[in-house]
């Protein structure tokens, strides 16, 4: 990869491990002081042992905070532990390379470093900088000379981070094409229904927990309704495994059109290419999960353990879409899933779906509100912060469940 030529402002993920790479005299500390808070900066000079620095940065990332590391990073072997640590904590590793003019470096290090040693370090860093991507750094910014002092830093929140939204919310489980039940549920929740225009009760927002389509009778109609709600700000939606598969199909990828996807695709065919394009753009924009209400509420289709809340990694995405799969298949050919909720000890309430039960299933601080509407169960909403569920029964059995829906579990009194 060629390093990104830096514009006037570099954009960093709001949650990341940022390695400030540069030789002595390149101005890493001054750069850190200009753009980051003292609590975000981890300077090797301030730690007796490399292990202490490593542990401090690990704790910062575990807490979901940005960490900026100033440590020897001239050689790939010195950088490797930092990209590995970022990966371990499901955050992006970013390198910012400060490449100062030779004359400036020599003046700043005249008393601390021989000219030969300085030149050796500069050439080693420049020689290996092109490999930063291969080393696991997802972004690498190369700032040269005067650019180092001039450049601005902008933090870009992750797509999953909607801590700024405080609700109240109406979270809605797997709809799977059950348009009539969805309209009825929204009406019960107090939404004013006019065609595809839904006006929420004052201040409320609907949150769809994914799996909008397949199995039920009108997947295209559900998409139209939900897309209209999202566009108007009446709703947010996270991605489910069925939504992800539909997106792959619409993107021309080879997928097996089973579990109702064939019917959905036929409905979208009939709806025409313009609508299909809108559906594709909508699905591409869906976050894999959402952190809401200052971090107190998580919406994720397949659930999400605490260490993956707010993380944008492939591992977090995969868990949120598919749940805690073991990789094995049961006697009916269905993926075996672990009961992640039983081991959940996080503080936020996690609302999810994905695994249908006859009634909502409360386990600790989690609630599964997939009540199998397409299988003839019910469509369920969770009102938050009220923590009340509301269900409307399915009007028909639209698809045969592979086995009877297991019982849910009421909340602890
Ligand atoms: Mn589902």
Automatic annotation (TrEMBL):
Transmembrane segments: none annotated. It comes from the Bacteria. Residues 168-356 form the Calcineurin-like phosphoesterase domain. Gene3D superfamilies: 3.60.21.10, P-loop containing nucleotide triphosphate hydrolases. CDD domains: MPP_Prp_like. This is Serine/threonine phosphatase. It comes from Deinococcus radiotolerans.
């Amino acid at each position: 990869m060629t390093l990104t030529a830096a514009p006037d402002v570099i954009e960093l993920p709001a949650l990341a491990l940022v390695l400030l790479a540069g030789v002595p005299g390149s101005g890493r500390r001054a750069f850190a002081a200009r753009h980051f808070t003292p609590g975000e900066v981890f300077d090797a000079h301030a730690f007796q042992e490399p292990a202490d620095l490593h542990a401090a940065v690990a704790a910062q990332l575990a807490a979901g905070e940005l960490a900026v590391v100033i440590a020897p990073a001239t050689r790939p072997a010195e950088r490797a532990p930092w990209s590995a640590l970022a990966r371990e904590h499901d955050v992006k590793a970013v390198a910012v390379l400060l490449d100062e003019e030779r004359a400036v470096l020599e003046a700043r290090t005249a008393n601390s470093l021989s000219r030969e040693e300085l030149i050796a370090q500069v050439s080693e860093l420049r020689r290996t900088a092109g490999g930063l991507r291969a080393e696991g750094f997802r972004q690498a910014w190369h700032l040269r000379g005067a650019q180092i002092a001039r450049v601005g830093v902008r933090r870009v929140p992750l797509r999953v981070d909607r801590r700024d939204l405080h609700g109240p919310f109406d979270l809605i489980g797997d709809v799977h094409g059950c348009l009539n039940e969805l309209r009825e549920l929204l009406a019960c929740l107090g939404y004013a229904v006019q065609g595809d225009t839904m006006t929420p009760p004052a201040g409320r927002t609907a949150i769809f927990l994914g799996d909008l389509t397949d199995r039920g009778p009108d997947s295209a109609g559900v998409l139209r309704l939900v897309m209209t709600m999202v566009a108007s700000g009446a709703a947010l939606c996270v991605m489910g495994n069925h939504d992800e598969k539909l997106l792959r199909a619409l993107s021309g990828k080879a997928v097996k059109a089973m579990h109702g996807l064939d019917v959905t695709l036929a409905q979208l065919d009939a709806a025409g290419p313009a609508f299909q394009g809108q559906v594709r753009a909508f699905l591409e924009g869906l976050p894999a999960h959402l952190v809401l209400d200052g971090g107190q509420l998580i919406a994720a289709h397949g659930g999400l353990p605490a260490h993956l809340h707010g993380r944008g990694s492939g591992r977090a995405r995969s868990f949120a879409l598919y749940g805690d799969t073991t990789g094995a298949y049961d006697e009916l050919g269905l993926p075996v899933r672990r009961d992640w909720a039983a081991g959940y000890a996080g503080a936020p309430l996690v609302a999810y779906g994905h695994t249908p039960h006859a009634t909502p299933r409360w386990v600790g601080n989690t609630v599964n509100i997939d009540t199998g509407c397409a299988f003839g169960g019910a469509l369920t909403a969770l009102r938050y912060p009220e923590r009340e569920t509301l269900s409307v029964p399915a009007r028909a059995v639209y698809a045969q469940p592979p086995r009877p829906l297991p019982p849910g579990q009421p909340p602890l009194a």
